[in-house]
Please model this.
Amino acid sequence: DAKTTQPNSMESNEEEPVHLPCNHSTISGTDYIHWYRQLPSQGPEYVIHGLTSNVNNRMASLAIAEDRKSSTLILHRATLRDAAVYYCIRSNNAGNMLTFGGGTRLMVKP
Amino acid sequence: EAGVTQSPTHLIKTRGQQATLRCSPISGHTSVYWYQQALGLGLQFLLWYDEGEERNRGNFPPRFSGRQFPNYSSELNVNALELEDSALYLCASSLLVKPQETQYFGPGTRLLVL
Model:
């Protein structure tokens, strides 16, 4: 049970911003929200994580809703190399493993 | 700094055989995780080792086992291989045991069972 809901796929044009949504309506107060992505033929790669506040790093921004029931990963300018499956994951102290759902397959058009 | 490494990159076995997959975590990381990515099933958690001990296990049969060595490297053993064990096996490591801790993944071992 991944406990997050994401669209199966999204399309974007190169150089444009991309907003990848994630629903986690049953999130608890101690659950962190992580985003990983998996490029073709590679292992997953960490993108960003947060708890309550919006977060920025060199790869992306994470906007977390005030009620924490949803979040959005923002890629400010999509490149062809950003084409990947993006996973939104909740994590807490229960076992420390990551529970992956189906993710969103992002396609970037030149 | 070297990332997580896994060996072999590819492994071909026949039904009933045993497979051994190896993982070296990032230097200084004490936690190692194993995941299975089978076609059509997504990434599923297999095992978590920390400080040499098995800390958690996913919903897999006992023929999936492993261990962590004193240098924190890890082995995943799959006994009595079945066709459906064909998958990409991913290893990840993390520095600390905290829910916000990032897991760093290796490139995986692709196991094919004939």
Q: What stands out?
A: The longest strand of chain B covers residues 42-50. Residues 4 and 106 of chain B are 5 Å apart (CA to CA). Chain B touches chain A at residues 4, 31, 33, 35, 42-45, 48, 50, 55-56, 58, 90, 92, 97, 99-108 (CB under 8 Å).
